[in-house]
Design brief:
heterotrimer, A mainly alpha (about 230), B alpha/beta (about 270), C alpha/beta (about 210), B: about 270 residues, alpha/beta, D-Maltodextrin-Binding Protein, domain 2, 2 domains, ten-stranded mixed sheet, two-stranded antiparallel ribbon, globular, C: about 210 residues, Rossmann fold, four-stranded antiparallel sheet, 7 helices
C-alpha cells in the first residue's frame, strides 16, 4: 500500500532529524510566532475599542475587519507582493522574498482573526466587570485593562486561532516568500513543491508535522476555552 | 505585575533574537529560473560549489519562464536563467537585462501513452506529430503557463497553422513536474524537456515517442538584470555568477551532473 | 450638612415613570433601609446614587460640593461604593479582589498585604484565599465583596439586596458583617426585604412606592 509505505518512510525521515526537513519546520514556526507577536497588541487593542466605545465609523471598521477575515490568503499575498515589489511603493525596502515579508503577510492574515475574536470576547464581558472596577475607584484605563484580563482566556484562544490560520496557509507565503530553499520555504510551500515533484514521502512527512501542530493547537484551544468558560 | 514584566521581557528577547538572525545579511544573489531547471536538481548540485567560492548565498526563485522574466523586468531579482530565446531577446531589447551568455542546452521530447493512438512513433517531424495528435483528438496536456516549454509548444502549433482547442487539449497552467504527473495519470501526450522527464520517468510510465528534431533544441541563457534600470540590484553578484557558470569549471560541472546515470544538460558557453 | 444631597431626582423608562423624588438627603453615620415591591426601582435608585446609571437630576452634592450629574461615579468612587446583588469577583484570586481598590489607588504592595489580610480576617474568608473566585458560594462571594469594599473605608456604601438568595447561615453571617459597617462614621444604604436586616438599630426606612419615596 503506497500510502502506508510513504507514511512509514516519512516518520523515519522525521525521527532521523533530517536537517532540511526540520529547517523547513523551523521557518514555519518562527515566522508564524513572530507574526503573532506583532499582530496581537494592535489587534487586541482594536477589538477592545470596537467593543467598548462608540465612535463615528465604528460600524464601517467592524465590517472591514470581518471582510478581511474572509479574503483568500492568495489575494492578500498578491496585494502584498505588489506593494513590496521593486515596482511598488515599498520596493526600496527590499523585503520581497524574505522571511520578513512572510512575517508581515502572516501578521496581516492573523490581525483580523485576533481583532474579531477579541471584539466578541469583550462584547460578551459581564457588564458588572466595568461597574465593579469603576465603583472601586479604578480609572478608565485600569477598568479597560481589568475587562481585558477578565476575558484573557478568550483572547489567548484568539491568538491560538490566529496561529492556526497562519501556519497552515500557503497562498500568501508562496507569493511573498518565493519558496526559497533554506530561507522562505516553510511547511506548506514545501509540501506544494515536494508533491509537485512527485516526492510524496517528504510531502507526507511535512503533512504529519502540520497535522500534529494543528492537533496541539486545537487541544490548547479546548483547554483555554474550557477554563474561560467555567464561570 | 511581575508576570506582565516577564512576558514583556520574553517578547523583547524574541524580537532581538529574530533580529540578529536577519542581520547576518551576506552577499545575496537573487536568481529567478524555471521550475524545470530547479526541479532537475542541477542548481542544488551546482550552486553550493559557487557559494563556497564567492562566500555569498544564491536565493533561487523557481517559477515559469514568463514569471521569471517578469521578476527580472520588475527588478525583484538580480539575474535570470531561462530557456526561451525570443523572449530573452525581447527582454534585452527592452533594456531589462544585459550581459546575456549561453549556458547549456537540453532538448524537448514528445512523450505519450504506450499504445500511441495518434501514431507518432515513426514520425521525425515534430510539427507533423503535433498535427496528428490534434487530428486524432488524442489527449494532450499543455503547460499553459507562458513558460519556455509552453512557448515552444505554442510555436509548433503556429507553424502547423492550428489552434489547439477541444476536449482533448488540457491547458494545466502549472509547472513541468505537475504536467508530467497529470499526463501520467491521464495517459496523455505532452511536450517536455528531457531533463525533467528523466527525473520523473519512473514515476509516470510514459515512453519517449519522438525526439531529435532540430526544432526541439532547448538552449538556456543567463542574463543579468540591468543595473542602469535598477541601481541597487546586485549586479556584481550577478556578474560573478554569470562568469562562474560559463567558466570551464562551471561548464564542466554542468556536464558532469547526472540523474539516474544519465547526463541531463550539455554545456554550451562560448 | 448632609453627606449626599440629591434634588429633583426623576427616572423614567421610555413612557413609564419609575420614580420622582423632590429631595433625598443622606447623612453620615446613618443607615437607611430602602424597601419597595419588585420593580419599584430600588436597584435603579442605588445605581443612580453610585453614578452607574443616568437619570434626570436637578442637583447633587457630596459633603457640600456640587457634583455634575454625569460625573458622579468618576468623582465619588471610591468614597461611594456600590455592591451588586450578585457581586462579580474578578477571576484572579480572592486576595487580589480584596486588594483591587487599594491597587487602583496606587498603594504599594507591602502596605496592601497587611490591610488585605486584616479585611479578609474580618470577613471570615481567610480559608478561601487559594480557592478560585468563581467556585465560591453566594454567601462567600458577598463576604469577599464586603471586604473588598470595606478595605477602602468608603464614606457611603450602597448595598443591593445583599442577603437575597442566600441560605440562613450565610444570611446571618453577611448581616452580621453589615451591622458592623453601620457605625457613626459611615452611611450605609441597603435595598432589602430581609427581616433580619429590617431589625437594624436606628435605621431609617425609605419606602419606594407609587413612584415616590416616603
Amino acid at each position: 500500500m503506497e500510502l502506508l509505505q510513504s507514511t512509514a518512510e516519512a516518520l523515519r525521515l522525521l525521527m532521523a532529524g533530517d536537517a532540511e526537513l526540520w529547517g523547513i519546520i523551523f521557518v514555519s514556526v518562527k515566522v508564524c510566532f513572530l507574526a503573532l507577536v506583532i499582530a496581537t497588541p494592535p489587534a487586541v487593542l482594536l477589538g477592545f475599542f470596537l467593543a467598548s466605545r462608540i465612535f463615528p465609523g465604528r460600524r464601517v471598521l467592524i465590517v472591514a475587519v470581518q471582510t478581511l477575515l474572509a479574503l483568500p490568503t492568495v489575494v492578500i499575498g498578491l496585494i502584498l507582493y505588489m506593494l513590496l515589489s521593486r515596482q511598488g511603493p515599498f520596493g526600496s525596502m527590499h523585503l520581497l522574498f524574505t522571511q520578513q515579508a512572510m512575517v508581515i503577510g502572516e501578521a496581516i492574515l492573523a490581525f483580523p482573526i485576533l481583532a474579531a475574536l477579541t471584539l466578541s470576547a469583550v462584547q460578551a464581558v459581564d457588564p458588572r466587570v466595568a461597574e465593579t472596577a469603576r465603583t472601586l475607584g479604578a480609572k478608565p484605563w485600569r477598568t479597560s485593562l481589568t475587562m481585558l484580563l477578565e476575558v484573557r482566556f478568550a483572547v489567548m484562544a484568539a491568538m491560538v486561532s490566529g496561529f492556526g490560520r497562519v501556519i497552515s496557509e500557503i497562498g500568501c507565503a508562496m507569493m511573498v516568500g518565493g519558496n526559497i530553499a533554506g530561507v522562505t520555504r516553510n511547511i506548506t510551500t514545501a509540501i506544494a513543491l515536494e508533491t509537485s515533484k512527485g516526492e510524496f514521502v517528504e510531502g507526507i512527512a511535512l503533512g504529519i508535522v502540520l497535522v500534529i501542530i494543528a492537533l496541539t493547537i486545537n487541544f490548547g484551544l479546548a483547554l483555554l476555552q474550557g477554563r474561560g468558560g467555567s464561570r | 505585575m511581575k508576570r506582565f514584566n516577564q512576558l514583556v521581557s520574553a517578547v523583547i528577547l524574541t524580537l532581538l533574537l529574530a533580529g540578529t538572525t536577519w542581520a547576518s545579511d551576506k552577499n545575496i544573489i537573487r536568481l529567478a529560473t524555471t521550475t524545470s531547471t530547479a526541479n532537475s536538481g542541477l542548481l542544488d548540485y551546482l550552486l553550493p560549489k559557487f557559494e563556497q567560492k564567492c562566500s555569498c548565498k544564491v536565493h533561487v526563485i523557481s517559477v515559469g519562464t514568463g514569471k521569471a522574466l517578469k521578476l527580472g523586468e520588475d527588478g525583484n531579482v538580480d539575474v535570470v536563467l531561462v530557456h526561451a530565446r525570443p523572449a530573452e531577446d525581447t527582454f534585452i531589447a527592452a533594456g531589462h537585462g544585459i550581459d546575456r551568455r549561453d549556458v547549456m542546452y537540453n532538448d524537448f521530447i514528445l512523450i505519450g501513452p504506450h499504445n500511441d493512438p495518434a501514431k507518432i512513433r515513426d514520425e521525425k517531424d515534430v510539427v507533423n506529430a503535433m498535427k496528428k495528435i490534434a487530428q486524432s483528438q488524442s489527449k494532450f496536456v499543455s503547460r499553459g503557463d507562458d513558460s519556455g516549454t509552453d512557448k515552444m509548444e505554442k510555436n509548433y502549433w503556429k507553424i502547423a497553422n492550428m489552434k489547439p482547442e477541444g476536449k482533448w487539449y488540457f491547458s494545466a497552467g502549472q509547472g513541468m513536474g505537475e504536467v508530467l504527473q497529470m499526463s501520467g495519470e491521464m495517459r496523455a501526450y505532452t511536450l517536455t524537456d528531457r531533463g525533467t522527464y528523466i527525473s520523473y520517468r519512473d514515476k509516470i510510465g510514459l515512453p519517449i515517442l519522438l525526439q531529435g528534431d532540430e526544432r526541439m533544441f532547448n538552449p538556456y541563457g543567463i542574463i543579468a538584470v540591468n543595473p542602469k534600470k535598477y541601481p541597487d540590484a546586485n549586479y556584481k553578484g550577478a556578474t560573478e555568477l554569470i562568469n562562474w557558470i560559463t567558466s570551464p569549471q562551471g561548464q564542466q560541472l554542468i556536464g558532469s551532473f547526472k540523474v539516474g546515470g544519465e547526463q541531463l544538460f550539455v554545456p554550451s558557453a562560448k | 450638612m448632609s453627606l449626599m444631597l440629591v434634588r429633583g431626582l426623576r427616572k423614567s423608562f421610555g413612557e413609564r415613570l419609575l420614580f420622582d423624588v423632590a429631595e433625598l438627603a443622606l447623612q453620615s453615620g446613618s443607615s437607611y433601609l430602602l424597601t419597595g415591591g419588585n420593580g419599584s426601582g430600588k436597584t435603579t435608585m442605588l445605581r443612580i446614587l453610585a453614578g452607574l446609571e443616568t437619570a434626570q437630576i436637578g442637583s447633587v452634592s457630596f459633603e457640600g460640593v456640587t457634583i455634575p450629574a454625569g460625573e458622579i461615579c468618576t468623582q465619588l468612587s471610591p468614597r461611594v461604593v456600590y455592591l451588586h446583588q450578585h457581586p462579580y469577583l474578578f477571576s484572579s484570586s480572592v486576595a487580589a479582589n480584596v486588594a483591587y481598590g487599594l491597587k487602583a489607588a496606587g498603594m504599594a504592595h507591602a502596605k496592601r498585604e497587611a490591610l488585605v489580610r486584616e479585611a479578609m480576617t474580618w470577613a471570615g474568608v481567610n480559608h478561601l484565599a487559594h480557592i478560585a473566585p468563581h467556585k465560591l458560594s453566594g454567601g462567600e462571594k458577598q463576604r469577599v465583596a464586603l471586604a473588598r469594599a470595606r478595605i477602602l473605608n468608603p464614606k457611603m456604601l450602597l448595598l443591593d439586596e445583599p442577603t437575597a438568595n442566600l441560605d440562613e447561615e450565610a444570611r446571618r453571617q453577611v448581616a452580621g458583617l453589615i451591622r458592623q459597617m453601620c457605625d457613626n462614621n459611615h452611611c450605609v444604604v441597603i435595598a432589602t426585604h430581609d427581616p433580619e436586616l429590617m431589625t437594624l438599630k436606628d435605621a431609617v426606612q425609605l419606602r419606594l412606592e407609587n413612584a415616590a419615596l416616603r
